[in-house]
Amino acid sequence: MSPLIADRVTYEIAKFADPDAIIVNEAGSVAMHSFDFNPIGGRELFYYYGSHLGSGVGTAAGVKLARPNQQVICLVGDGSFIFGPTALWNMARLELPVIVVVYNNHAYSGPHSRVVANVPSGRMVQTGQFVHDYLGNPDMNMADIARGFGVAGEVVESPAQLREALARARAHTVDGKPYLLDVQVARRGVGWAEKPWVPPIRLAAIRQKRV
Ligand SMILES: Cc1ncc(C[n+]2csc(CCOP(=O)(O)OP(=O)(O)O)c2C)c(N)n1
Ligand SMILES: [Mg+2]
Fold first, then answer.
1. How many domains does the chain have?
2. What is the CA radius of gyration of the chain?
3. Is 1 within the bounds of a domain?
4. Ligand 1 atom closest to Cα of 83?
5. Can you give the residue range of the structural domain that contains 70?
6. What is the pTM of this model?
7. Is residue 95 part of a domain?
8. Ligand 1, pocket-test mutation among 53, 81, 134, most atoms within 8 A of CB
9. Residue 29 sits in a domain of what CATH number?
10. I need a surface site. Which of 9, 25, 82, 128 has the fewest CB within 10 A?
């Protein structure tokens, strides 16, 4: 089934994670269920979110440096990820075996839902034309971005592939290397069309010189 439901992704990762894994969370609108966190010897949650996007990947690198003997899994939204993927390069360079999972719904879904909730009679809601929330068309390939920083990874489109990809991620980390999963997840909430509107700004129609 593609795209996946975000909750299914979380469930599969919770099944996969080590009993003392550290979860670094910058997946803002994803519910952190199923992990059964217990900082006294069990799984730990490192959570910093809300004000400045882009901290997740760098935080995960730092947590791995501080706790080299625990599995570190970074959960991050696609919008948050693109604000700060740079620490992937540090993971590659310093050989920090972190698993990064991008919940890629091709959207700033949280702000979208807040606009709909807070300005229900607003023009964007009336027209269904949300100027700033959709990150698809063209879709960003986070595995390609990771490759650019020297980190291996893959795009994941089904629960079966997710389980296989997590096994590959584990193999990479056992080998001392980071790994990134770009998991295609469904946009949730009100006001999302299957193919959301994009602003019709095209230079081709107005430019006079082919430069
Ligand atoms: C530097 C910065 N710019 C903009 C914002 C506003 N903002 C808060 S959440 C968010 C979208 C996050 O998108 P994503 O990580 O894909 O999560 P989703 O809501 O789609 O689950 C934005 C743009 C912010 N918090 N920080
Ligand atoms: Mg998103």
1. 1
2. 18
3. no
4. 1
5. 6-206
6. 0.96
7. yes
8. 53
9. 3.40.50.970
10. 128
Tokens encoding 57 = 């990947």
Tokens of 17: 């994670």
For residue 54, the ligand 1 atom closest to its alpha carbon is 1
Torsion of CA 157, 4, 19, 51, to 10 degrees: 110
Q: What angle do CA 129, 130, 131 make, to 5 degrees?
A: 110
Give the contacts of 131 (CB within 8 A, at least 6 positions apart).
Answer: 124, 199
At 81-136, the pLDDT tens digits run 999 999 999 999 999 999 999 999 999 999 999 989 999 999 999 998 998 899 99
CB 113 within 8 A of CB 189: yes
Q: State the distance from the centre of ligand 2 to the C-alpha of 43, rounded, in angstroms.
A: 25
Ligand nearest to the CA of 81: 1
Q: Which amino acid is at 11?
A: Y
Kindly state whether residue 179 falls inside one of the protein's structural domains.
yes
- For residue 172, being part of any structural domain is answered with yes
Give the ligand with the smallest distance to the CA of 189.
1
**Is cis: bond before 19, omega within 30 of 0?**
no
Q: Pick out the chain residues at pLDDT < 50.
A: none
Q: Which residues contact 134 (CB under 8 A, 6 or more apart)?
A: 106, 107, 196, 197, 198
Cβ partners under 8 Å of residue 120, min gap 6: none
